[in-house]
Amino acid sequence: MRALKTLLIILLAVVALAVILGLMGPKSSTVSRSVVIHAKAPTVFAHANSLQHMQEWSPWSKKDTDMEVTYSGEEGMVGQTSTWSGNADVGKGKQEITAMVPDRNVDLDLTFIEPFAAVAKADLDLEAMGDSTKATWTFSGENGFFSRIFLMFNDMDKMVGPDFQDGLLQLKALSETDAVNMAAEDAAKTYRGYRIETVERPEMTYAGKRDVVKWEKLGAYFGKVFPQSAQAVEKANVGMAGAPSALYYKWDTVGHQADVFAGVPIQAASDVKVPGCEIVTVPAGKALMIVHTGRLDGTGTAHEAMDDMMTAKGLHLRFAAVEEYVTDPAQEPDTSKWVTNICYPVE
Length: 347
Hints:
The protein is an alpha+beta fold. Helices cover 32% and strands 37% of the residues. It has helices at 2-24, 41-45, 51-55, 59-63, 145-151, 156-189, 218-235, 300-313; strands spanning 28-37, 68-72, 81-85, 92-101, 105-114, 118-129, 132-142, 190-191, 194-195, 197-201, 204-214, 245-252, 257-266, 278-282, 285-293, 321-325, 339-345.
């Protein structure tokens, strides 16, 4: 009887100690790690804008390469969820994107099922730092009674922190590799400071007028022909399909003049009739394009860059060079904001 009483006293003491520890233990936990990534925020965010992309650098993916992951909801949108089931190192659970600001943050709600039940949050914040980005990954959650006892003898930061740091280092490696590849791609497309893209252009039909015009009179010529062409197209009940454009057939550096067609693109077949206008169709196909920003008299260097690239790659024009005057000077007086698309249809 005395032994039973002693055992009961010991049991009550253990229970009392557990209660005390449960009350004294930390009611919440927060673990945070940061890393500076030598890549711009959009490049980093591209690896965190969906649960599928986050899985690629998740430290827990390495702990169980056979882990089963199921996704639901629209990829990369708030509300997307995934469930996971794996070995003892990863357990079972569910996560959901609860908030997202492009290039700035992704917030997740976590629900752990095994090896213990718990809920928490995992937030990834991105801070732009010029050509670099500071990424901070933070885990936070409320601790249940038994978790509080456990954490009286264990350090959550030491348990979870290394995994978060490992994940951030994987994110850093992926993002910096992308940044290097993108820089190399940009360099390969850059001539004389201009980025030259290769694009596929659809067939374009224009209504306007073709003349040989002295360079110094091109501005006045465009100012006259563009409105006339637009009015003729409207009168013919034909829809416009873009910005006023010039097609340069020849740029005469001896006579200082250009063989040029000025007009507007139209939503019509090449056999359409627009009284007062000539109709020109540029066939669909590959083209080189520069997006030039600034005064129109500054496009000369862009054309020189295009010529350099054409020569370097052994390309030849298959039609007249095209300038699309995207910005209406009447709507935007600041010439530094004028946008001109320079397109060279190539064979």
